[in-house]
Specification:
With about 300 residues, the chain is α/β, with parallel strands linked by helices. It contains ten helices and 14 strands. About 35% of the residues lie in helices and about 30% in strands. Strands 6-7-8-3-9-10 form a six-stranded mixed beta sheet, with helices on both faces. A four-stranded antiparallel beta sheet has the order 2-1-4-5, covered by helices on one side. It is elongated.
């Protein structure tokens, strides 16, 4: 896929403090790349480098194949950035601010109704920015970004402080945009949102400690999926021998209690189905069969703690 944004070994120093170290990431068209990490891990610094408002101390950052700080106005027009505290015009209403943003890129004003609905501001459209709450101001900034219909978006915690319904609407809209070819780098504090990304980059103390598809993060953390198979006590050892003989060597198999066999696997669903077929062929009685998949919170915690 064509990389619209790419960092390669980027460092950023502030005096003697290393904010980012050997930061590498690529964002291709049609992709959502999530950037997650604890507070102070370097997420905002990384975004500032990627959009070309800050220069790396070492390494390279490119946008559309050119050095990020050297791109011209035509390339800038293809990019949108949402800061944690968006710059808004206090005298305007929310609708006027969003419409104004659209005019800068010649976006039809008819698109505003849908965008205001997506960010949950339809009923607040006539509210003056100076009277808007912090959450409303943030959603107004996001609506302005979305009105521009950019090709490449950098969104710094776009769903912070939003209720679950609005978050769901936003992520549905994000995916609609990337399905049409846009690309996004999204920082987030919501670990569950990682599952909505095509790739997740985990930062810890300014270093990338994982860069994987969400479903492979558990492997990076050393946390596999588990299958628990319960057989009658008198059948358990025979079932164990069959599983050891026929399941892939990458599957860990062990006894647990008097009746349970535990199997560690990268694909618990497939392993469970294979084990069930093997037990059926051997005429063994399955008392229970279930799978356990580590939560994203567990995966994130393990990655960060082991980094």
């Amino acid at each position: 896929m064509n990389a619209l944004a790419q960092a390669d070994g980027a460092h950023r120093l502030f005096g003697e403090v290393t904010a980012l170290e050997s930061f590498s990431v690529s964002v291709a068209e049609g992709q959502i790349v999530g950037l997650i990490g604890p507070s102070g891990s370097g997420k905002t610094t990384a975004v500032r480098l990627m959009i070309g408002v800050d220069r790396p101390t070492a390494g390279t950052v490119k946008l559309f194949g050119r050095e990020a700080m050297a791109i011209g106005r035509p390339q800038r027009a293809r990019i949108a950035f949402l800061a944690q505290e968006p710059a808004l015009i206090e005298e305007m209403t929310i609708a006027e601010q969003v419409k104004f943003a659209g005019r800068l890129r010649a976006t039809p004003t008819s698109a505003m109704k849908e965008i205001l609905h997506v960010v949950g501001l339809t009923d607040a459209a006539k509210t003056r920015i100076s009277n808007a709450s912090g959450g409303m101001r943030r959603r107004t900034g996001l609506a302005a970004v979305l009105m521009n219909r950019p090709e490449l978006m950098f969104l710094d915690e776009p769903t912070a402080g939003l209720d679950p319904i609005i978050r769901e609407q936003l992520w549905t809209h994000f995916r609609e945009l990337t399905d049409r070819g846009s690309a996004m780098l999204v920082t987030t504090q919501h670990i569950d949102e990682a599952s909505r990304c095509d790739r997740v980059v985990v930062l810890r103390n300014g270093r990338v400690v994982a860069d994987e598809a969400p479903q492979r993060l558990a492997d990076s953390a050393g946390l596999g999926e588990t299958v628990n198979l319960d057989l009658p006590p008198e059948q358990r050892d025979r079932g164990l021998r069959i599983l050891i003989e026929h399941l892939p060597k990458t599957t860990t198999i062990q006894r647990s209690g008097e009746t349970t066999i535990q199997m560690g696997s990268a694909d618990a669903a497939a392993t469970a189905a294979h084990a069930a077929d093997l037990m059926s062929e051997a005429s063994l009685t399955i008392l229970a069969l279930d799978t356990e998949v580590p939560s994203l919170d567990e995966v994130f915690r393990a990655i960060v703690e082991n980094a």
